[in-house]
Amino acid sequence: MQPNDVNPISDTIETDAKEPFHEPVSASSTSEEAEANKHQPLNRQCSLGGKHEASGDAGDAGHASEKPGAISQGQQEPAIDGPPDSGLTAWMTVVGGFCSMFVSFGWTNCMGIFIDYYQTHQLSNLSTSSITWVTSLMTFMMFFGGPFVGILFDNYGPRYIILGGTILHVLGIMMTSISTEYYQILLAQGICSPIGTSALFHASINSISTWFRQRRALALGIATSGASLGGVILPIMLTRLFNLLGFGWAMRICGFLILFLLIITNFTMKSRLVHRRKQFRLMDFIRPVGELPFILTTAGTFCFFWGMFLPFSFIPSQAERYGITPGRIIPTYLADLFGRFNLMILMTLLSGILVVALWLPSHGNAPAIVFSALYGFSSGTVVSLAPALVAQISEIREIGVRSGTYFFIVSFAALTGTPIAGALLPDPLHGSYTKLFIFCAVVMFAGCGFYSLAKVRMMGWGVWSKV
Predict the structure, then answer these.
(1) Is residue 451 part of a domain?
(2) Are residues 179 and 216 both part of a single domain?
(3) How does it sit in the membrane (predicted)?
(4) Co-location of 128 and 183 in the same domain
(5) pTM assigned to the model
(6) Which of 221, 254, 274 is a domain's end point?
(7) Cα 126-127-128 angle, rounded to 5 deg
(8) 157 φ, ψ to 5°?
(9) Which region holds residue 103: left if phi is over 0, alpha if psi is between -120 and 50, else beta?
(10) CA 218 to chain centre
C-alpha cells in the first residue's frame, strides 16, 4: 500500500504501511458491508504529483475504519497486523511454495515428454489429439479445482489441503507407473494426480499471498520459479530414466522425489490468517464476475493460457530446457517497482512477438533453442504474475474465493488449448506447423489486449501510470 492510497469507501488515508490494522470481516457479516465492498476493487485510484498510481493491494486498505469486535460466530478472525513482508515464517512459506510448485506446475511442464513417449509406446494406436487430452487434463484439473480449494483454504487453512494433495499426487503417479491402457492413464495421470497438484498449487499461492503485500510479486515469483526448475529437471529425469529403466521405474523414482519435496512443504506451509469455518455463499464466487477489472484480467489470462502451453508441448524437450528459471524471479521484482499490470502487458506482448518472429520461421535446432530461451523468460513471468494480479484487485479476506474463481475460468483454456493444437497439427513429425503458430500468436496478442483494457479501466490512458 502506498502512503497516499485512498479508500473510496471510508475516505480514510493510510499514512503508515506498517501501522497495525485489522483484516476486514467476512462478506456475510452485514449486507451493507457486502454491498459496499462489492465494487471496492474497481474504483481504487489515487493521484500523486499529477500522475495516477494504482493501489498495490486492493485488499489491504481502509482498515482503520473497521471495527475489530464485529466478528460473529463462524466467521474468520482478523489478524492483528498486516502482512509483514518479511520474517522466518513468511520466507519458509515461500520455500514450501517453491517445493510445491516444483512438483505441481513443474510436473505439467513434462507434458511434451509424455506426448512423445505415448505416441511410440502405450498409446501408439491413438491420434495425437486423443493423447493430448491426458496432458490437457493435467493442467485443466490443476486450475479447475481453484474454487473448491479456495473454500477449504478460507475455512481451514492450508495444512490438510497440502496433506491431501500430497497423497493424491503421489498416488496418481504411482498408479500411472503400472498403467497400460488409455483409460487407466487418463484416470491416474489425468484426474487423480492433477487433483493433488490443484490442492498443492492453490494452497501455496493463497498462503504466500497472506504473508506479503509490498513484495508479493517477488515472493510469488520466487515460489513459482520452482515450477521452472521442475520443468527443467523433471523432463531430463524422465527422458533419461525412460531409456535406462523403462516407464514404470521412471515414474516411481519421480514419485519418490516428489514425495520428499512435499514432506518439506507439509512442514513449512502456513497461512498468516486465523481460519474458522463460515457459511458457504455461492455469490462469493459469482460476485467477482461482475467487476470489470476482474473480467478483463481473467480474459487476458484465459487467452494467454490458451496458447502458452503449446510451445512446451510441441517443441522438442531439449529446446525447452534452456533459460527458463530467471524469468520468474527477476521480472517479478521489477513488477513490484513499476507495476504488475504494466509488466504483464509487456511480457504477453513479447511472448506473442516471439512466436511470430522466431518460432514461426524457425527451422532446425538453433532457432528453436533461442526461441525457447526467450519464450521461457517471458511466459515464466506471466505465470508468476497471474496470481499477483488477482490478489491486487481482491480483498485479502477473499483471496481464496476470488483466486479460485479466476483459475476455474482459466482452467478451460488449459483444457482445450493443446487438443485444439493437436487438431491443427495431426502429425507433429511431418505436418505443417503454420496453423498452430497462428493460433498461438493470436490468442497471446488477445491476452495482451485484455490486460491493457484492464489497466485502462482502472487508471485511464496514462501509458506510464503504475498499476
Answers:
(1) yes
(2) yes
(3) Multi-pass membrane protein
(4) yes
(5) 0.68
(6) 274
(7) 125
(8) 85, -175
(9) alpha
(10) 14
